[in-house]
Specification:
Length: 698
């Protein structure tokens, strides 16, 4: 494994924020800027003019892309006003960085990250990584250099704000803590003030995925101090990651300040997850009606909820004789023709005169569509103008709610052979969920919806490896999606396994084709080792705590027991990570209290003797750990069943948080620092008695 060309920056955030491919491309752009400046010196005050003069350059290319001789079209300059550039520089410059001084590469990176963050917010805060360089032969290596000026500012959509505020008012109106503050006036910016204590956002997450946060862990006093607010924000961000939100560029300070574009972007993601919760085969098995054979079933399983929703919509439109294919939630539905057909298929009894299609004026037609939806009992997520303007986020929300109210699918399951084996056992499902959320939390450019389907072409695995082992991937030998030829997928997966061997993974009887074929057992085993490698690298950075020796799971076990004993709990002890007494939750609560005494409210803790008490403790443990700053993806069932790998994961996460925290500021509550958390995984399989070799043999 070679690390030639490794780009290292001193700021840990920037090192995590970008892949090595990103850093190399950006370093090239920075060099171009310096070379073009007088005397080869690029001043901070010169950045606006210099960056605006840069044209789009080709991004990192895979083998297939390199065979094409076409070069990307040059992108336009930014053309921002002086005031707009001043806003950008003010947001990223540090106190010791002055306009007349040289602009360092790291300052350039911070400008890039800020522009990408603003671009994401302006585009609706959708899922997937906000930053990073799109690896496409037609993409710019630096996306913000080719983006339209209007999308790069801290602007928000008033229509989206009004829609999301309406959603919050409707769904949280009866919440005991929030009802006195609701309804929120969508015409004001009050939404950004009411979210500053973190309570509303935590409640919204539980609305999207019930049970994610144990509400006993939320600080709900009417007046919260800075530390308590920071706890709520930390709990919110770690829980948002645990349901699939992308929060790479959002910190606790952003929430505390109520930064509109970031708060609205997070709210958008949470509401989107809520509305799309049933758009999958597990929740709505009737979706099997959309497929005809096993190949189509595999395709459906790999689709995002948005793509499944489009497929469902076209399925229903075909019933109504609609001739076009809807491919997006924007331009394809601006004229409301597709909506008119869809609603007539799903709820013909709710139609009225004049019919929508008898009206030529698009605004009037859109108004009739919304009136039809009202009669169906659907909530309004948009206005007639939003339909005509083709606002994608709001149209998606509208269609998703129609699906929730009436999907038009048969209640009788389609009896087809290729549905057999669709359901995984509970353990496999939980592992798939944990790995999926972990991968999505890394901030790679590809957002995955199903581990077993989305990893089969090898590309995502290469992205993950590049993130946790920078410089190890040979991108010149990689084939970028879409990949039609099976042997190209095998080539990617072979490189994945080659790197795995270089990283000392145990890869007995596993070949690239096993990943391409979607072998669940082997994919899970490989992902486990990736997670293990990730935490090993993180703990190596904290090696000074262990006098230079490698940290093993036995060290973690001993550390946890010592922390609990030193706190005065002499009778609380963990024999191993498969100790059945862990199911009560008592030991982990003692450990959490030992590393941060203020974080556990003991009046809420049960004895953990009955099943119901154990369940309550398990739920509370996970929320308290996230509130502390641990980025974890386990479920209460993992604690109740004493899943030894997850027990090690949880303990390692707490240990990592404790060792990396600033000793003078246990929770950094005064400055409200960003929630810097990292997914924690198993370190050594000896104590957990779980052998990777066993998992990788057939």
């Amino acid at each position: 494994m070679g690390f030639d060309g490794l780009v290292v920056v001193s700021d840990p955030y920037l090192q995590r924020r970008f892949t090595q491919a990103d850093l190399r491309a950006l370093q090239t752009q920075y060099a171009v800027l310096r070379d073009a400046s007088p005397n080869g010196s690029l001043l901070m005050r010169d950045l606006p003019a210099a960056i605006s003069s840069i044209r789009g350059r080709g991004a990192v290319k895979g083998r297939d892309a390199e065979k094409e001789n076409s070069a990307p079209e040059p992108g336009p300059g930014l053309g921002l006003t002086d005031e707009e550039w001043a806003s950008v520089l003010k947001a990223v410059a540090r106190a010791d960085e002055k306009p007349h001084q040289d602009a360092s590469f790291e300052l350039f990176l911070r400008v890039y990250a800020e522009m990408q963050l603003r671009l994401k917010a302006a585009s609706g805060g959708g899922a997937g990584r906000a930053g990073g360089i799109a690896r496409s032969s037609s993409s710019s290596a630096v996306a913000f250099l080719t983006a339209a000026t209007t999308t790069l500012l801290h602007t928000i959509s008033e229509s989206e704000k009004a829609s999301y505020v309406g959603h919050i008012n409707a769904y949280l109106a009866e919440d005991p803590f929030l009802k006195s503050a609701l309804p929120i006036d969508p015409a004001t910016d009050h939404i950004f003030h009411i979210t500053k204590d973190g309570v509303l956002l935590c409640k919204l997450i539980n609305l999207a995925v019930p049970g994610t946060i144990d509400e006993r862990a939320i600080n709900t006093k009417r007046v919260l101090n800075l530390w308590e607010k920071n706890e709520n924000h930390t709990l919110c961000l770690n829980s948002a990651k645990a349901i699939g939100c992308t929060v790479v560029n959002i910190g606790t300070q952003d929430l505390a300040e109520g930064r509109p574009h970031l708060v609205l972007g997070l709210i958008s993601q949470i509401i989107k997850i809520q509305l799309l919760a049933d758009v999958n085969l597990k929740s709505t098995p009737q979706l099997v009606e959309l497929v005809e054979d096993s190949k189509e079933m595999e395709e459906l399983m790999s689709l995002s909820p948005e793509k499944i929703l489009l497929r469902w919509m076209n399925f229903q439109l075909k019933k109504g004789g609609y001739q076009k294919t809807v491919t997006n939630f924007s331009s394809d539905i601006k004229d409301s023709e597709a909506y008119a057909c869809l609603l007539n298929v799903l709820a013909p009894e709710c139609s009225a005169k004049p019919s929508a299609m008898s009206v030529k004026d698009l605004l009037h037609r859109a108004r009739l569509i919304l009136e039809h939806a009202d009669r169906m009992g659907c909530k309004r997520y948009l206005t007639p103008k939003d339909i005509v303007d083709g606002l994608p986020n709001l149209n998606l929300a509208f269609v998703a709610h129609i699906f929730q109210k009436r999907n038009g699918l048969s209640k009788q399951m389609k009896q087809v052979s290729f549905v057999d084996g669709l359901s995984d056992d509970a353990q496999v499902s939980r592992e798939e969920r944990s790995f999926r959320l972990w991968i999505n939390s890394l901030g790679i450019s590809t957002y995955i919806n199903n581990v077993f389907e989305d990893l089969r072409n090898g590309w995502v695995l290469l992205e993950v490896i590049d993130k946790i082992a920078p410089g190890s991937v040979n991108w010149k030998m990689a084939n970028r999606p879409p990949i039609k030829l099976p042997f190209r997928k095998v080539e990617n997966c072979n490189q994945v396994l080659k790197i795995g061997k270089e990283l000392k993974f145990s890869l007995v009887n596993i070949a690239g084709n096993d990943i391409v074929q979607g072998n669940k057992k082997l994919i899970l085993a490989f992902l486990w080792q990736l997670m293990r490698y990730n935490i090993l690298q993180l703990l190596k950075n904290l090696r000074f705590h262990s006098n230079g020796k490698e940290i093993t799971d036995n060290d973690i076990l001993a550390w946890a027991n010592k922390k609990v004993k030193d706190s005065g709990k002499h009778h609380s002890h963990m024999q191993s990570f498969k100790d059945k007494s862990l199911s009560s939750g008592t030991f982990f609560l003692d450990l959490l209290s030992a590393v941060e005494p203020r974080v556990v409210n003991w009046s809420l803790v049960t004895k953990g003797e009955k099943d119901e008490e154990k369940q309550m403790n398990a739920s509370y443990i996970i929320s308290v750990a996230r509130k502390l700053g641990c980025s974890i993806f386990l479920l209460p069932e993992d604690i109740l069943e004493v899943n030894q790998k997850m027990m090690l994961t949880l303990t390692a996460s707490i240990m990592y948080w404790y060792l990396k925290r600033p000793t003078s500021h246990p929770l950094d509550s005064e400055n409200g620092s960003s929630c810097e958390t990292t997914s924690i995984t198993t370190l050594d399989d000896s104590a957990s008695e779980s052998s990777i070799d066993d998992n990788t043999t057939r």
